[in-house]
Protein backbone atom coordinates (compact mmCIF):
# COMPACT_ATOMS: atom_id res chain seq x y z
CA UNK A 1 0.00 0.00 0.00
CA UNK A 2 1.41 3.35 -0.97
CA UNK A 3 1.46 6.45 1.19
CA UNK A 4 -1.17 8.00 -1.07
CA UNK A 5 -3.66 5.19 -0.40
CA UNK A 6 -2.84 5.25 3.29
CA UNK A 7 -3.55 8.98 3.51
CA UNK A 8 -6.91 8.63 1.72
CA UNK A 9 -7.96 5.70 3.90
CA UNK A 10 -6.88 7.42 7.08
CA UNK A 11 -8.67 10.68 6.16
CA UNK A 12 -11.88 8.80 5.42
CA UNK A 13 -11.58 6.70 8.59
CA UNK A 14 -10.87 9.71 10.81
CA UNK A 15 -13.84 11.60 9.44
CA UNK A 16 -16.05 8.53 9.92
CA UNK A 17 -14.89 8.22 13.51
CA UNK A 18 -15.49 11.92 14.04
CA UNK A 19 -19.02 11.52 12.72
CA UNK A 20 -19.63 8.50 14.96
CA UNK A 21 -18.18 9.78 18.23
CA UNK A 22 -18.39 13.60 18.24
CA UNK A 23 -22.06 14.23 17.54
CA UNK A 24 -22.80 17.19 19.77
CA UNK A 25 -23.39 19.88 17.15
CA UNK A 26 -24.95 19.66 13.72
CA UNK A 27 -22.16 21.73 12.19
CA UNK A 28 -19.52 19.22 13.34
CA UNK A 29 -21.51 16.38 11.78
CA UNK A 30 -21.75 18.34 8.54
CA UNK A 31 -18.01 19.02 8.57
CA UNK A 32 -17.29 15.31 9.04
CA UNK A 33 -19.55 14.48 6.10
CA UNK A 34 -17.79 17.08 3.96
CA UNK A 35 -14.36 15.70 4.84
CA UNK A 36 -15.56 12.22 3.88
CA UNK A 37 -16.74 13.54 0.54
CA UNK A 38 -13.49 15.42 0.01
CA UNK A 39 -11.36 12.35 0.65
CA UNK A 40 -13.53 10.34 -1.74
CA UNK A 41 -13.25 13.09 -4.37
CA UNK A 42 -9.47 13.19 -4.15
CA UNK A 43 -9.29 9.40 -4.34
CA UNK A 44 -11.51 9.35 -7.42
CA UNK A 45 -9.55 12.17 -9.04
CA UNK A 46 -6.24 10.35 -8.48
CA UNK A 47 -7.57 6.97 -9.62
CA UNK A 48 -6.88 7.45 -13.40
CA UNK A 49 -3.34 8.57 -12.56
CA UNK A 50 -2.72 5.50 -10.42
CA UNK A 51 -4.03 3.13 -13.11
CA UNK A 52 -2.20 4.94 -15.95
CA UNK A 53 -5.45 5.48 -17.77
CA UNK A 54 -5.35 7.92 -20.66
CA UNK A 55 -9.03 8.83 -20.47
CA UNK A 56 -10.37 11.19 -17.86
CA UNK A 57 -13.49 10.21 -15.98
CA UNK A 58 -16.48 12.42 -15.26
CA UNK A 59 -17.19 10.69 -11.94
CA UNK A 60 -15.19 13.17 -9.74
CA UNK A 61 -17.07 16.12 -11.25
CA UNK A 62 -20.44 14.44 -10.62
CA UNK A 63 -19.40 13.65 -7.06
CA UNK A 64 -18.27 17.24 -6.51
CA UNK A 65 -21.67 18.43 -7.74
CA UNK A 66 -23.50 16.17 -5.30
CA UNK A 67 -21.16 17.28 -2.53
CA UNK A 68 -22.00 20.93 -3.19
CA UNK A 69 -25.72 20.11 -3.14
CA UNK A 70 -25.27 18.21 0.12
CA UNK A 71 -23.41 21.14 1.68
CA UNK A 72 -26.10 23.60 0.65
CA UNK A 73 -28.88 21.38 1.97
CA UNK A 74 -27.00 20.80 5.22
CA UNK A 75 -26.48 24.50 5.81
CA UNK A 76 -30.13 25.20 5.04
CA UNK A 77 -31.14 22.56 7.60
CA UNK A 78 -28.69 24.09 10.08
CA UNK A 79 -30.23 27.54 9.69
CA UNK A 80 -33.78 26.20 9.87
CA UNK A 81 -33.11 24.06 12.94
CA UNK A 82 -31.28 26.88 14.71
CA UNK A 83 -34.22 29.20 14.11
CA UNK A 84 -36.80 26.72 15.36
CA UNK A 85 -34.91 25.07 18.24
CA UNK A 86 -32.58 27.88 19.29
CA UNK A 87 -29.32 25.91 18.98
CA UNK A 88 -27.63 23.32 16.81
CA UNK A 89 -27.17 20.68 19.51
CA UNK A 90 -28.14 17.31 18.13
CA UNK A 91 -29.68 16.13 21.40
CA UNK A 92 -32.38 18.83 21.04
CA UNK A 93 -33.69 17.26 17.84
CA UNK A 94 -36.26 14.59 18.46
CA UNK A 95 -38.04 13.05 15.50
CA UNK A 96 -41.00 12.01 17.64
CA UNK A 97 -41.91 15.60 18.58
CA UNK A 98 -43.47 17.94 16.05
TrEMBL record:
The way it spans or sits in the membrane comes to: Multi-pass membrane protein
Report TM segments: 6-22, 29-49, 61-80
Q: Which GO terms describe its molecular function?
A: NADH dehydrogenase (ubiquinone) activity; oxidoreductase activity, acting on NAD(P)H
Q: What class of enzyme is it?
A: translocase
Pfam families found in the cross-reference section:
Oxidored_q2 (PF00420)
Q: What is its main location?
A: mitochondrion
- Give the EC number(s) under which this enzyme is classified: 7.1.1.2
Q: Where in the cell is it found?
A: Mitochondrion inner membrane; Mitochondrion membrane
A cellular-component GO term for this protein: transmembrane transporter complex
Listed under catalytic activity are:
a ubiquinone + NADH + 5 H(+)(in) = a ubiquinol + NAD(+) + 4 H(+)(out)
Record keywords: Transmembrane included? Answer: yes
One GO biological process term is: ATP synthesis coupled electron transport
Write the record's keywords in alphabetical order, separated by commas.
Electron transport, Membrane, Mitochondrion, Mitochondrion inner membrane, NAD, Respiratory chain, Translocase, Transmembrane, Transmembrane helix, Transport, Ubiquinone
**Of which family is this protein a member?**
Belongs to the complex I subunit 4L family.
Could you tell me what this protein does? Core subunit of the mitochondrial membrane respiratory chain NADH dehydrogenase (Complex I) which catalyzes electron transfer from NADH through the respiratory chain, using ubiquinone as an electron acceptor. Part of the enzyme membrane arm which is embedded in the lipid bilayer and involved in proton translocation.
User: This chain belongs to which protein, by name?
Assistant: NADH-ubiquinone oxidoreductase chain 4L
Amino acid sequence: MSYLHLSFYSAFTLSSLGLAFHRTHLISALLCLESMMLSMYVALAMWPIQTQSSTSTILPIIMLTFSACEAGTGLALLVASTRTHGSDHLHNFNLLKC
